[in-house]
Specification:
By secondary structure, chain A is mainly alpha-helical. Helices cover 69% and strands 0% of the residues of chain A. Chain A is elongated and about 70 Å long. The structure holds a DNA duplex.
DNA sequence: GTCTATACAGGGATAGAC
DNA sequence: GTCTATCCCTGTATAGAC
């Protein structure tokens, strides 16, 4: 998929377009600064008002400069999400292998990301659902496949450990796990009185085998 | 909540602004025409490209004319969703009382609505999650409360009928039901290979009491 | 390589003519 | 009730400074 920052530094390809920036120190820093400020501006202003001009202003640069690093506004937003996914993946790996079913904890760590990030993701998914946004659609199709795949692994481990009802089909359950987290967080984002943690705990308990008593 | 068409007809308030149309035959028809065309144009063009000008063109009026009926583009889209909700509610009532847990069927009937409508809803929810869209936010907060309330009723009936695991907390389960339908349909909209019906059936089975064998 | 200045087409909102 | 004209804003594109 997208190249690592470090490997991009070594390829030494000639600069052929905006998408291939990031090879030289100043550009790398600038690019990162844009990504960082974008999420800040978005959290404050929302999707529509987070214009390239607004982001540029927050950095002290003209809006045209942003296009040296990102081909379109859409690409810029997608790259923000890609980077956050990379960070989350790295953090999860540092955390070691999961101990049993632990979806509620996953959901909590999502929530601890700024709500702004979750709202941005929601906005981009909405765009991906509409005609004519193939880039976004491809990103999210792949992302959800990856999320389901991760859920499958966890469920398989749980089944082996005997903490999952043995009659549950893994594939359907994996989609269900992701759906539950998505849906609960949407309700929570709209109305903080909704207890998404309780919902997730209930869902986990439904997956567990009946108590042997 | 929002007034019924019929009751609006009787109030007899003077027309004080764009939001209060719908009292006189021509206005009623025009208003309905706008709502109908909007969803058609949206399904074809998506959120961003469904401009007031594009909708006006589809009807044969200028974009400015639309504002006699809807204060803003946002209000127009919200009204489309309100009307679809009203229709769905009426259809559900005509269907009679639900027989036990039947969430999978509900989900299927959602899906049979045009995917364009579901995408529009997703776009509007995304906006509601961002700062400065209080109208949309209020609408969806209320809508989800209403959805959860409906789910609670069904779950209570199911518990009485003995088809629901008796240890399941109703409130948390209601949020979970809605979350599951939302989340599964999102995955399905992105990628039709996802079997949301199977997911919903699995979820229903998790709610059922253990087979007495 | 990085950035500014500038132009363009299109958007929502709005005022006032008819 | 509907129009046209206008306002300011947007993403995108290009030319050229340094």
């Amino acid at each position: 998929m997208q190249a690592q920052e470090s490997s991009a530094l070594v390829t030494g390809k000639p600069a052929t377009g905006p998408g291939s920036r990031g090879r030289y120190p100043k550009g790398v820093l600038r690019r990162q600064e844009i990504l960082d400020r974008t999420i800040e501006v978005f959290a404050e202003l929302g999707f529509e008002s987070t214009s390239l001009r607004a982001i540029g202003e927050a950095i002290g640069v003209s809006h045209a400069a942003l296009r040296r690093y990102f081909e379109t506004r859409e690409e810029l937003f997608l790259e923000v999400l890609r980077e956050k996914d990379r960070q989350a993946l790295a953090a999860a790996r540092a955390d070691g292998t999961p101990h049993g079913i632990d979806f509620a904890r996953h959901l909590d760590s999502f929530a601890s990301q700024t709500p702004g990030l979750m709202a941005l993701r929601h906005s981009m998914i909405a765009r991906a659902l509409e005609p004519g946004n193939e880039t976004s659609q491809a990103f999210f199709v792949e992302r959800y496949e990856s999320l389901r795949s991760g859920a499958r692994e966890i469920l398989l481990l749980a089944r082996e450990a005997g903490v999952l009802r043995p009659d549950i089909p893994i594939d359907a359950a994996a989609a269900l796990v992701i759906a539950t987290m998505d849906g609960l967080s949407t309700q929570w984002l709209l109305d903080r009185r909704v207890d998404m943690h309780e919902g997730m705990i209930l869902f986990e308990s439904l997956l567990q085998p009946p108590r042997p008593e």
